[in-house]
Amino acid sequence: MGDECEWMKLPIDQKCEHKVWKARLNGYEEAAKLFQKIQDEKSPEWSKYLGLIKKFVTESNAVAQLKGLEAALVYIENAHVAGRTTGEVTSGVVNKVFNQPKARAKELGVEICLMYIEIEKAEPVQEELLKGLDNKNPKIVVACIETIRKALGEFGSKIVQLKPIVKALPKLFESREKAVRDEAKLLAVEVYKWIRDALRPPLQNINSLQLKELEEEWVKLPTTAPRQTRFLRSQQDLKTKFEQHQAAGDDEEGDEEAEVPVVDAYDLLEPVEILLKLPKDFYEKIEAKKWQERKEALEALEVLVKNPKIEPGDYADLVRALKKVIGKDSNVLLVALGAKCLAGLASGLRKKFQSYATHVVPTLLEKFKEKKPQVVQALQEAIDAVFLSTTLQNLSEDVLAVMENKNPSIKQQASLFLARSFRCCTPSMLPKSLLKPLCAALLKQINDSAAEVRDSAFEALGTALRVVGERLMNPFLVDVDKLKLDKIKECSDKVELILGNKSAGTSKVAKPGPQGKVVPSSSSGDKVDAPATKSGPSKKPTKPGGQPKKGKGPGPASGPGGKGKKATEIREVEPELSIEVCEERAATVLPASCLQQLDSSNWKERLASMEEFQKGVEVTDKRALPCQALVRMLAKKPGWKETNFQVMQMKLYIVALVAQKGNFSRTSAEVVLDGLVDKTGDIKCGVKAKEALTAIAEACSLPWTAEQVVAMAFAQKNPKNQAEALNWLATSIKECGFAGLNVKAFISNVKIALAATNPAVRTSAITLLGVMYLYMGAPLRMFFEDEKPALLSQIDAEFEKMQGQTPPAPIRKLAKRDADEEEAPEEPDEEENGHAQDLLPRTDISDKITSELVEKLGDKNWKIRKEGLDELSTILNEAKLIQPNIGELPGVLKGRLNDSNKILVQQTLTILQQMATAMGPNVKQHVKILGIPIITVFGDSKSNVRAAALTTLNSWVEKTGMKEWLDGEDLSEELKKENPFLRQELLGWLAEKLPTLRSTPPDLILCLPHVYACLEDRNGDVRKKAQDALPTFMMHLGYEKMVRAAAKLKSTSKDQVVAALEKAQAIVPAKPAASAKTSSKSNAARPPSTAAMRAHSATINDDTDAPALKNDPKKNKATGPTAKVKPGIGKKVLSKPNLKDDEDKSGPIFIIIPNAKEQRVKDERTLKVLKWNFTTPRDEYTEQLKTQMSSCVAKWVQDEMFHPDFHHHIKALTALLEHLESETEGVVGCLDLILKWLTLRFFDTNTTVLMKVLEYLKLIFTVLSKEDYHLTDNEASSFIPYLINKVGEPKDLIRKDVRSIMNMMCKVYPASKMFNFIMEGLKSKNSKQRAECLEELGALIEVYDLNVCQPTPAKALKEIASQIGDRDTSVRNAALNTVVTVYNICGDQVFKLIGNLSEKELSMLEERIKRSAKKPSVVSTKQVEEKTSRTQGLNPNAAVPRKGCEEVPTKLKIMYRTYRIQARSNNSHSTSESAPMIPREFQLDLDEIENDNNTGGCELPDLVQHKLDELYEPVSIPEPKNRSVSPHFDEIHGSTDSTINFVVSQVASGDINTSIQALAQIDEVLRQEDKADTMSGHIDQFLIATFMQLRLIYNTHMADEKLNKAEILKLYSCIIGNMITLFHVEPLAKEASMGVLKDLMHGLILLMLDSRLDDLDEGPQLIRSVNLLMVKVLEKSDPTNILSSLIVLLQDSLLATTNNTPKFSELVMKCLWRMIRLLPSIVNIINVDRILLDIHNFMRIFPRERLKQMKCDLPTRTQKTLLHTLCKLLGPKIMDHLVLIENKNESELEAYLRRVTKHSMALSGGKIDSETEKGGSTIEDKESKAKISETLAEIFKKIGSKENTREGLAELYEYRKKYSDADIEPFLRKSSQFFQNYIERGLRLVENEREGKGRISSSSSSAGFSSPPDESPYVASSTSIPSAGSTNGEEVGPAVYLERLKILRQRCGLENNSKLEERQPATSLLSKPTVPTVASSSELLHNKLAHLRDSREYNQEQESHHPPVQSNSNATSAANLDDLKKRLERIKSSRK
Questions:
Q1: Burial (0-12, 13-18, 19+ Cβ within 10 Å), 838
Q2: Does 1621 or 834 have the greater pLDDT score?
Q3: What's the rounded Cα separation, in Å, for the pair 379 and 1029?
Q4: Residue 1142 pLDDT > 70, yes or no?
Q5: What would you measure as the largest C-alpha separation in the chain, in angstroms?
Q6: Suppose 964 and one of 771, 916, 927, 1323 were both cysteines; which one would form an S-S bond, judging by CB atoms 3.0 to 4.6 Å apart?
Q7: 40-49 average pLDDT score
Q8: HSE toward the beta carbon, residue 1713, CA cutoff 13 A
Q9: Is the pLDDT of residue 2007 over 80?
């Protein structure tokens, strides 16, 4: 009793384990009660009993066991952890419960098993129950069978796996125990309910009596399908549905039929190994000479292949033997037997036979020539069985090949095979790309002479029609007449589809096993057109037909369809006409006189006949035009040998006209082509000949015409003709498209052209290759790899030009495409993708794969095997591109992949890689036999072999796609192999590839068990790869499926796997979006527009997001490759995919994972991953980074980041830039990974990417600084060293940006730690890097004092001082400067810190210290404060100031750089000379800045306060006045240059007031001559800021209606006033560089042309001020720079097609004319070499022919005038100034100058110098009569030439005026009366113009160059003489003073006393030159005023040697003004 009391006190769990059975009984009872009370299934109480439940069921005491079983059942039903006990508890039930005599125990045991199944543990329960079937105790066996039967009856065949049950049934029927047999019978009946007849084959070998009993029972069963009655916990929704059905009755039972899974009997069978059972002498016998022996071998094989399921293996040799028997055996009985064996083998292997299918199908099809029915039937069975193992797509090429066979039996059987195959297909299995060629071949056969061929073709077409529906088939049946179409439809109605019949899976048993697998989709039979309907609207063809099928000959499908096709046939088959018939037909169109004069000997008559010929053709109707007759008339003698070019041009034009107007056949074309080709190289007739060729190409198709033209050109041997023919072809391809061209023929001719001696032919060939590259891409280069390296480099350069460009849309409609042009957008299916590949000619190498080569490859000696591989490699190299037929090679190469010699394995992999490239997409046929073995190589222990295998595998996948690899069990079989290398490589590869797929085959799920096994692999790398692969599997299979698959695992494994699945669920990548066909191309072609679109979409509201995205493609439609899409279709087709793309990319790109960064740091510290430390990044670093990024960066961004093409890197950077502000937290979370990726980009060679990276880095560090983030040591160490490496870049722009970033980093990383990294940079071998690092160290020390030096100042400074002795000057200087910086801080102590130096180094240092401006002193508090403010308030983009390095601030440089890039992109043009468009990321977003209005995050800093307030009060703008120097100016000037930089940078401010204040300060500095020098060195900077502000006003302020226009005018006035002041200070004006002057002039001209100014009151006045400013810029700037900038600006303006109007170019030319006027005075100071280089570049871009094509001839005349003036001034010496021009012998400029100098030397001494002419001296004083004669001769020569007539007249007028006694009568007498009158009239006209009384040019201006460019140096010279008015004796009328009064009134408000005349307005300097007209009074006044102003300027120049007066007093100015007013009043009164 005491013991009982003792155990009663114990807790329940201890009672359950007590040794006393009563205690246990009590414990079980209490436990059951406790389990029922616990409400929470996840209560921790459950876990206490986890290990006890097995003891509950295995209780030894029978009474206690019952209670234990009851408690266990309650536990299993309620506890969430119960699943973990499944295996052990079920095992206990089977072994300890099912053998109990008590029925209750047995019932509870069954219930426990069923409850485990209900909680999702069916697999382990079934496994234990099946084990129980082998138990020796029959009671246990019977109970297990009963439990299985109940489970199947209640849960159904979806939950309970039938395959292992069916496998066990035959054994149970053999049991000795009757109870077991009876229970097995009940189980078989239950199984039959679920799978019906599929159960028969596995039970066919049991006792016949038992089978009979079963048959009787099966017959009694109801025909309705059984239904699941008990449901899993996850199927509660089904349970509810089932209960509702039960309540409503069983009426809806029929609806549930489809839910019953259809089981294929094949899956229930055990495979049989037959290879080992083959007779040992099988292969000897099958080759035996006696047919009986061969028969024996085949019969032995036939027995083996009758097994319905065969074990997979290597059947290559067996298939090869059978193929030989079928194909070559002479005994037809053996052929039939071989076919039966092959059929059995294919049926037994099913999908495993796929790799052999393509090898045997051609043989089977060819053998259909046999007539015997027995053989034909066997062959049919064989080919049908083979078809079921593969797809019709794989066999289509073989079938199409035999469809052209002459043997009707073969054609008939091929068609019947297609009919049977179609019957097994669904619509999705027959895409348009497959149907099109098959239907084309079948349509040919319905016209065959043999009735059986026609009938079989009808049957095949009818079957196809039934499968895919009429909508898809109709386009292919357009040309079929009604009778035949009715026959096809009749056949269609008779067809019974295998996959369309719902009962197919259950009714067909004997042979339809394969269909059973596909039957679940059979319900689609009723919805055949559903998928098609869905995509219908966007793809519905408006006209029948389609583009020609490539590479398949002229079948019906290759024609355009409809009328177009018939017309083409008519044209092509037109017979040749005799000359008599031609004459008759021509006479109906042409007049008789025309025909008679065609061969006249008088060319004029021939020309007249041509004109009549042309008229006759033009007026004749198209249908009545006898094309052949007409062209034969043209070819009559003299025909194409015509000598008169006018006649020949007309003849060529008529050929083109006839081709365009009439039905021009190829027969007609052949008449004229030879003659046309012969004339292509003719200078005068070449253009017309090419036009005629183009017209013929349009009429007869480009492919045919091009082939003829090229062949004829190369037959004629004329290099000019060859070159021009190739040029014509290149142009025609662009205009007409590339479809159908015979690439092979062109390649052979191009190779001939490349070998030509004539350079023009080679150049044309390379140009043609460039055009072909646009369409064909990289494969084209393979054909030219054997060319010479020099030639190959030229080809590569041409290809590089075309890189990234898209083929232009065809602009000409070829005749063959007229019928279906509207369908063109609809056909970019798979055909278009493989288009380039299809065009390339492929070689059949099957004949080269000889038996000797195969034997070599299989030889035992490795050296011979290597020889074989070398031979094979040579064959592939020579063939370039090959056909897929490679004979016995696949089987042999597969063996070499397992070679014991690893070198041969690698060589085999290389060959396979070659094969993939050579075979292209067709390599997919060999995936199963050759591709899968590549994966097996992953198991090799050597990393280099595995790497080679991965490369090969990727090259195959690139050609085949992933579907072929994922189909079937092959991949899962590979994963099953327990090889750690294979598993980790394969899983890594899958993790990389799966995210790129939109869908995967269902067979992917077969890999899951093995992936789960890899999660528990002993190898850590395998486990990691498996974890990485899980999200990618989940992406396609879904979480639920994967969890369900994990349920089959053991409990311990399952928990681990489920936990991993839950983790993976959080990071499942999104599926890639389906993009438009052309999206990848258009994005590559137009990155700027894409970026702009994204940037735009980022700024608009969510509501407007979708419309914006839809509209963008429409706007860009005309420029992209989609321009040819019809509007009706294009909108839908294009907008949807683009929208989807953007939706997929619209989410965040960073995934924030808590503590992920810390974990990465920890992994690196513990060496779990590679430390980020390398000299050059290896692949493993890239892969590691990619893996780390996969979990925290969006998949699409990651794809762009790690793409091999740099364009994608730019896209990734664009995305990072766009998301920088919005995802700051994500950026910080992934900062270490971002910085690491950016370091990889540092190793790229592409400058664009590097610049983008630096741009991003500047922005990211700015953001990090704002966020007050500090870099971790891990981030810094993985980034800063690589950044420091880039500071040694040779490009100055990159170095500056890197320095800027290094300076910014001090805000986010301690300067002392930064110091260490920079010190490491001193160890570099790059001298630039060392110098930059030393400068950076100096800057850090200057800002942060010596405390920054690490580890100690002494050690650091010793290292720095050691650089003083460096060999490189820049390093020495930088080291000295840094030490001097230290000296300025600590004085003489520096000498102790730097240690011992050599005497030389010490003397250099002392000298530098002496020269240093600063003196050592103790650091004052003020300096400390200043340094602190510098470090805290440093502009993010501004560099730390350095000693001796006064640079423009980085911010302004960036502004300038981006402005220049933007300007270039705006002015870019479509020609090859144009610069590529710069992506938007490199442009300053001025629009955003301008619209910001200081409300955004980017605010301009306040001006540094230097007590300047007094200067601003008052600031009267726009009336700037001289003020006395501010007392604080010296203080301002005394500060560093940063003050000026700061003020200048504010000039470009978006705020008008800020800009005006900055301009006011600069104006004050410029006006005081003693202070103006401080602006030296800042002029470029100031001008950049100024024209940036001008652009801001032009683009933003003027467009802003809210802004007061008066403020804008104020700002304009300040800018123009400032610049006028600046250009008065000549030393400063000359500092402006060429590029800045170019942009300044560009901005000022745009301002003058701004029509918006006309609407403002003071607008005209502003334009006059700009006019005056431009004159000053032209006069005061450095003449070389301004002249050079004007030439470049003219060049840019002529190139531009959008922004600049013709007026712009004219104004630039006027500025050039002004400079030409100044040339005589500046020729000695300009850099002529530079000017000539710029002219050379101009002439290179605009050669003479191109200039002549322009509408306006002013550019030509301007260029000539400039060169003539230079030649005139420099003479022959000008030829010495061509040194800067490379290849000057090829320069057009050099040739031109030689002509001009030669001409001038011939006339030397004959021309009077212009300066002497101005002197007005007499003839007697200046020259002899002989010289007079020469001068006059030259003048009259000029008058006689067209170009120089007016110049000659002007010179003659001047000559007569100066030498009044000169006699010109002798010269006049020699000419005609008309010419004499002309000269007299011309002289009068010149006199009127000079005197101002007659016709004058309306464009005369203050600048004094009114004439056109040719005349400007001469005619205008008289008007530019300062004293012209007085010398001519003209009276100055009152109108002049009135005009001056008007001007003074307008300007009198500006009391600027400095130089009145320089503020005075000028009239239109840049007005457009026009034809002279009668001048108005105002124009006369303008003219006189110009004379007066010129006079004043001349006087100023004469007095320039006097010291200038610094300022005039106000009194003097007022007196002058009063005097002027009085004089003007007197004038006014006198007029009255």
A1: middle
A2: 1621
A3: 45
A4: no
A5: 164
A6: 927
A7: 79
A8: 33
A9: no
Helices 1679-1695 + 1728-1741 axis angle, to 10: 0
Q: Strand, coil or helix: what is 421?
A: helix
Place of tokens 């060819």: 366
What lies within 8 Å, CB to CB, of 1031 at 6+ separation is 1064, 1065, 1067, 1068, 1069, 1190
Among the listed residues 294, 364, 293, the one whose alpha carbon sits nearest the alpha carbon of residue 323: 364
Q: By the 8 A CB rule, do 1938 and 2024 touch? A: yes
Under a CB-based contact definition with an 8 Å cutoff, are residues 80 and 41 in contact?
A: yes
The 10s digit of each residue's pLDDT in 726-738 is 888 888 888 888 7
Q: Which residues contact 1518 (CB under 8 A, 6 or more apart)?
A: 1609, 1610, 1613, 1614, 1617
Whole-number mean pLDDT of the chain?
Answer: 74
Residue from 849, 924, 863, 939 nearest 893 by CA: 849
Do the beta carbons of residue 1380 and residue 1409 sit within 8 Å? yes
Euclidean distance between CA atoms 422 and 491, whole angstroms: 13
Interval 1666-1674 mean pLDDT: 86
Determine if residue 18 is left, alpha or beta; phi over 0 gives left, psi from -120 to 50 gives alpha, anything else beta.
beta
**Residue 1745 to residue 1743: CA distance in whole angstroms:** 6
Question: Phi then psi for 1435, rounded to 5 degrees?
Answer: -60, 135
Structure tokens at 1850: 């002007």
The CA-based angle 193-198-201, given to 5 degrees, is 125
Contact 1679, 1728 (CB under 8 A): no
Per-residue DSSP letters for 1868-1887? HHTS-HHHHHHHHHHHHHHH
Using 50, 70 and 90 to split pLDDT, how confident is the model at 1698? very low
Q: Which two tokens stand for residue 1356?
A: 């650091």
Contacts of 689 (CB under 8 A, 6+ apart): 652, 676, 677, 679, 680, 682
The span from the CA of 1373 to the CA of 1366, in Å, is 10
Token pair 């002289």 in the structure block, residue = 1883
Structure tokens at 941: 């222990």
How far is residue 790 CA from its own chain's centroid?
29
Q: CA nearest 1948: which of 2018, 2022, 2027?
A: 2018
Distance CA 458, CA 415 (A): 9
Tokens, residue 1081: 């191309």
Nearest CA to 1983 out of 2029, 1936, 1944 is that of 1936
Burial of 267 (0-12, 13-18, 19+ CB in 10 A): middle
- Nearest Cα neighbor of 1220 from 1257, 1251, 1189 is 1257
Q: Which residues contact 927 (CB under 8 A, 6 or more apart)?
A: 355, 956, 960, 964, 965
860: which DSSP letter?
S
Under 8 Å between Cβ of 1362 and 1374: no
CB < 8 Å & 24+ apart, contacts of 1825-1833:
1828/1859, 1828/1862, 1830/1803, 1830/1805, 1830/1806, 1831/1806, 1831/1807, 1831/1855, 1832/1862, 1832/1864, 1832/1867, 1833/1806, 1833/1867
Per cent of the chain over pLDDT 90 is 4
Q: Which residues contact 1159 (CB under 8 A, 6 or more apart)?
A: none
Q: How many helices (H) and strands (E) does the chain have?
A: 109, 2
**What are the distances in angstroms from CA 1264 to CA 321, 1298, 1848?**
72, 17, 72
Q: Say which DSSP state 1445 is in.
A: B
Q: Which residues contact 378 (CB under 8 A, 6 or more apart)?
A: 335, 336, 337, 339, 340, 343
Q: Token pair for residue 780?
A: 């084209």
Whether the Cβ atoms of residue 448 and residue 408 lie closer than 8 Å to each other: yes
Which residue carries 């009979």 as its tokens?
212
The angle subtended at Cα 1411 by Cα 1405 and Cα 1412, nearest 5°, is: 85
Residue 979 sits at the vertex; the CA angle it makes with 974 and 982, to the nearest 5 degrees, is: 60
Instruction: Give the whole-angstrom CA distance, residue 724 versus residue 729.
Output: 9
Alpha helices in 1101-1204 (DSSP H): 1105-1115, 1127-1144, 1156-1165, 1179-1190, 1195-1201
Q: Look at residue 1288 and tell me whether its pLDDT is greater than 90.
A: no
